[in-house]
Amino acid sequence: MNFLEKNISSMQLDILKEIGNIGAGHAATALSTLLNKKIDMSVPDVRIVSFNEMIDMAGGPENVVAGVFLRIEGDAPGSMFFVLPLTQAEIFIRELPGNIPFCADELTYDELALSALQELGNILSGSYLSSLSDFTKLSLFPSVPMISIDMVGAIIGTGLMEISQMSDYAIVIDTALNDELQNTDAVNGHFFLLPDPESFQIIFKALGIHDYE
Amino acid sequence: MNSILEIIKVGIADMNIVKTPGLIRTSGLGSCVGVVLYDLGSEIAGMAHIMLPDSSLAKNTSFNSAKYADTAIRNLMSLLEKKGAKTSRLNAKIAGGAQMFQYSSGSDLMRIGPRNVEAVKKELNSLKIALLGEDVGGHSGRTIEFNPQTGDLMVRTVNKGQIVI
Predict the structure, then answer these.
(1) Does A87 reside within a domain?
(2) CATH number, residue B70
(3) A107: closest CA among A92, A126, A86, A125?
């Protein structure tokens, strides 16, 4: 917790951005290979936010999304969310190999579609984490991802449990993915990486950045 | 009756109070629990959006009291008293405490919804506040809105529409 009360140096901020860049870059490549289409990603945004601000970053508490949540275990524990608007989740399921039949109105109840989405989350977060693990030489492994289609406030609020015991703020590394063929400016998916407060020093140390005091 | 209907919003790990003719709302309750304490006699109500069951879980000494069931309910009660509510007339309604993720890795934190509900009930019981309505558990996120004049708590979910308790 003390960590968040100090100022983060711009160097450290850059490192966190690079982490988001590398991780989401690999995840975007995996998604692109899986769907055989071009996927764009944004420059990562690193912010120290309150829980309410984080929920607003994902579209406000009542925004209905498909959310994949997993815990990162290993040397530097943390949480990860992959948040997709419902329409985009449907597009992804439709484009996955194997022609999964599903009914868009009842996505929540369609076990096969949900399982496909969960697997998509698994592949993406797995590639995000393994690239991070290579980059930092830390051992990081994901828990089995959990999926929920509901209000984003409810999904993120639940996923924040672990961090909320230590802090009222989270450092969020946010990377947006865009599906190029959708002719909209709308963001199609978000990765949120939230290292636990005590993991930051471990990550910085692993990358050779020592305490700045 | 010309006053503009004011809706007070309560964020996550937050609390606030409202008087007639206002309404008070919190959105996106997952495993969190929304607790409403109200006094129909003075038409005043307070709402807290709690995240965790017990302030002893806090890993640092300075914490946000609205985050924990035990501290939030006690603080809300004294806040209401200051604004003119009679604590002996207070009743409660609660909603939330869902299990958002179907898969449970056995981690205790995944059971946080039911634990939050238990903690809230225990605290209400020890403060002798009657629990007059609840919509808890399940697997859905909820948005709730309370009217301090009627004592109605509206609960909305994505899939099951809206109910009033």
Answers:
(1) yes
(2) 3.30.1330.200
(3) A86
- pLDDT tens digits, residue range B45-88? 999 999 998 888 776 666 788 899 999 999 999 999 999 888 89
Q: Are B38 and B45 in contact (CB under 8 A)?
A: yes
Minimum-distance CB partner of A164 among B52, B143, B159: B52
Q: Is the separation of the CB atoms in A161 and B109 below 8 Å?
A: yes
Residue A112 covered by a domain: yes
Number of domains in chain A: 1
Chain A residue with minimum CA distance to B113 = A158
Min Cα separation A62/chain B (Å)? 6
Q: Which helix (H) or strand (E) holds B73?
A: helix B69-82
Which residues from chain A sit within 8 angstroms of residue B105, using beta carbons?
71, 143-144, 146
DSSP string covering B87-101: GGG-EEEEEE-----
**Does residue A195 sit within a domain?**
no
**Number of domains chain B contains:** 1
Interchain proximity A150–B140, CB inside 8 Å: yes
Asked, as a colleague might, if the bond just before A97 is cis with ω within 30 of 0, I would say no
Q: Decide: A188 and A18 in contact? Cβ < 8 Å.
A: no
Q: How many CB atoms lie within 10 A of CB B71?
A: 19
* Percent over 90 (pLDDT), chain B: 63
- Digit-coded pLDDT (tens) for A68-92: 888 888 999 988 888 888 887 887 8
Domain that holds residue A137: 2-186+202-206
Using only C-alpha atoms, what is the Rg of chain A? 17
Contacts of A89 (CB under 8 A, 6+ apart): A65, A66, A107, A117, A149
Distance of CA A13 to the CA centre of its chain: 18
CA dist., res. B91 & res. B97, Å (int): 19
